[in-house]
Write a structure and sequence with these properties.
Blueprint lengths: L2 H10 L2 E7 L5 E7 L1 E2 L5 E6 L3 H8 L2 E7 L5 E10 L3 H14 L3 H4 L5 E15 L6 E4 L8
Antiparallel strand pairs: 1-2, 1-5, 3-4, 4-7, 5-6, 6-7, 7-8
Length: about 140
């Protein structure tokens, strides 16, 4: 599976489970609505009072599982999070709002923000195939 196919798969899935680390190192996971950029970055919104926001701003690494809802195709994804500001924030918001138009209304609340995850490792798996397809996506460190 090439990068364009992985991008298409990721963009066709509206949800992911994100896992982060608490302040004492325990894993915490949550189901989120996502948007995906052409650079395979994942964008999601959340309450600033949530555990994941506290975790990801203090320890900006996470893993995600995308897909697997109707079949055995998934993307396993590890990356680093950041909270964009200024013009960069506006650019990411527009991508997010394309996937989640209702996000415009939610973003009116000061209690809501969003984070972006830049990929560091991605693996696509399709266990509906025989033999299964399991491929890592090559990431150019200068592109992400």
């Amino acid at each position: 599976m090439d990068r364009a196919q992985v991008l298409q798969f990721m963009q066709s899935n509206r949800y992911a489970v994100v896992s982060s680390l608490s302040e004492v190192g325990t894993p915490q996971s949550a189901l989120l609505g996502i948007a995906v950029t052409t650079k395979l970055e994942v964008i999601f919104d959340m309450l600033k009072a949530s555990r994941k926001y506290a975790n990801l701003t203090a320890r900006p690494v996470c893993s995600l599982v995308i897909g697997g809802w109707s079949g055995e195709q998934t993307v396993q994804y590890e990356g680093e999070t950041f909270e964009p500001v200024g013009e960069e924030r506006a650019r990411y918001q527009e991508i997010y709002f394309e996937a989640w138009p209702g996000g415009r209304e939610r973003m009116q609340s000061p209690a809501i923000t969003f984070l972006v995850v830049r990929p560091r490792w991605i693996r696509y798996s399709d266990f509906d195939q025989r033999p299964p397809v399991i491929e890592e996506v090559k990431l150019d460190p200068f592109e992400v």
